[in-house]
Write a structure and sequence with these properties.
The protein is α/β, with parallel strands linked by helices. The protein has a single domain, classed as Alpha-Beta Barrel (TIM Barrel), CATH 3.20.20. It contains six helices and eleven strands. The strands form three sheets. A seven-stranded mixed β-sheet has the order 3-1-2-4-5-6-9. A two-stranded antiparallel sheet has the order 7-8. The radius of gyration is 17 Å and the shape is globular.
Length: about 220
């Protein structure tokens, strides 16, 4: 598999990967989470990222290759069938690699009253300057954008962020109340039992997963 080190926004189309405009390529998903944005959320980890940030929290989702492909309409139906959700969070991987199908999903979710949070390794300014109209359309659907690459030398304990350079952009009023709350936040981690083992979600200190693995092995 070719390694990618693209620092400017791009899509599957620009990389040359075949994709379906009405399907999303997911690395994983979680039906209930309280550590990936405000309140209770459905979380999607998009498969593929052209960046290679040292210390990436989700290296298993970096490969730009098919993983779990699902039709947008089917995924929307799956999400809307879950009760008690305030919204949906897009993480990855890099969500903006798949702007067209993600925009289409977002319109379904917003129409149903759910809020949208999106993590991205790109800056808001870089996304706004991009010529791809689907990137602009997706941006217009996002209530809270958390931008910037993870920088290991700037590790921080901030709400929904892993390093000091990452920023919260309140693109609508939906989550604006958080803009006036303290920036610092205690480390939050969720451990979810799955058929394939334990899935960790959230933001954790260095070597947390290694220590957890050793404890479980005992």
């Amino acid at each position: 598999m070719k390694s990618f080190f693209i620092t400017n926004p791009c899509s599957y189309r620009e990389i040359g990967m075949k994709y379906k405009t009405d399907h999303l390529n997911l690395g994983a998903w979680q039906t209930h989470s309280v550590v990936n944005g405000p309140d209770e959320r459905f979380v999607l980890w998009l498969q593929g990222c052209p960046r290679r940030c040292q210390g990436c929290i989700n290296p298993e989702f970096l490969a730009i290759e098919p993983s779990h492909e699902i039709a947008v309409d089917e995924l929307a139906e799956k999400i809307l069938a879950v009760s008690g959700l305030e919204g949906v969070t897009y993480s990855g991987g890099e969500p903006f690699l798949q702007p067209e199908p993600l925009f289409k999903l977002s319109t379904h979710l917003h129409a149903a009253g759910l809020g949208i949070v999106c993590f991205t390794g790109y800056t808001l300014e870089a996304l706004q300057a991009h010529s791809d109209s689907w990137i602009q359309r997706l941006l217009a659907q996002i209530d809270l954008l958390i931008d910037g690459p993870f920088e290991q030398e700037k590790v921080a304990s901030l709400r929904w962020r892993g390093s000091h350079n990452q920023r919260l952009h309140f693109l609508t009023e939906r989550y604006s109340k958080y803009s006036t709350q303290p920036e610092t936040s205690a480390t939050e981690v969720e451990l979810v039992m799955t058929n394939n083992g334990v899935m960790a979600s959230g933001f954790w200190p260095a070597n947390f997963l290694e220590r957890l693995t050793k404890i479980m092995e005992r």
